[in-house]
Amino acid sequence: QVQLVESGGGLVQAGGSLRLTCAASGGTFSRYAMGWFRQAPGKEREIVAAIAWSGGTTYYADSVKGRFTISRDNAKNTVYLQMNSLKPEDTAVYYCAAAYGSRWYTTPNEKNAYDDWGQGTQVSVSS
Fold first, then answer.
1. Which of 11, 43, 114, 118 could disulfide-pair with 96, CB 3.0 to 4.6 Å?
2. Nearest to 13 by CA among 73, 61, 85, 93
3. What is the per-residue pLDDT across 91-118, written as a single tens digit (0 to 9) for each?
4. Count of CB atoms within 10 A of residue 11's CB?
5. How far apart are CA 82 and CA 84, in angstroms?
6. Which residues, other chains included, contact 76 with Cβ-Cβ below 8 Å and sequence gap of 6+?
7. Burial 81-120 (b: 16+ CB within 10 A, else e)
């Protein structure tokens, strides 16, 4: 089991940028695929972006393509989410998640492909 701690959330105006960071501990980070999800009030938790253990494969939700970038630094046990051109509809709690198994490679966008989750960080975008 790996422990995940998100940081970097906050309040930003529409059009602004934020970079979220997820620090992992307690496991072999370089073996895990990682994902960022978000959950807005009254809505289901949804995939934002995901990245394979090597960083060579990435996945993005259509709603964030061209605006968000996921990356990882295996030497620092950290995954990042750079968010640019933020919109009010990006407002949500953002969660980091780790995937150990092969299911991730067929369904990186599904919550049940992930094994461990962080506590989340709030991102609020004002219009």
1. 118
2. 85
3. 999 999 999 988 888 899 999 999 999 9
4. 12
5. 7
6. none
7. bebeebeeebbbbbbbbbbbeeebeeebbeeebbbbbbeb
Average pLDDT for the chain: 96
The set of residues, in sequence order, having a beta carbon less than 8 Å from that of 42 and lying 6+ positions away, is: none
Q: For residue 4, which of 94, 113, 68, 109 has the smallest C-alpha distance?
A: 94
Written as one string, the DSSP assignment of 16-56 is --EEEEEEEESS-GGG-EEEEEEE-TTS--EEEEEE-TTSS
Which of the 8 DSSP states describes residue 88?
Answer: G
Distance, in Å, from the CA atom of 105 to the CA atom of 8, rounded to the nearest integer, reads: 28
User: Each residue of 17-30: pLDDT tens digit?
Assistant: 999 999 999 889 98
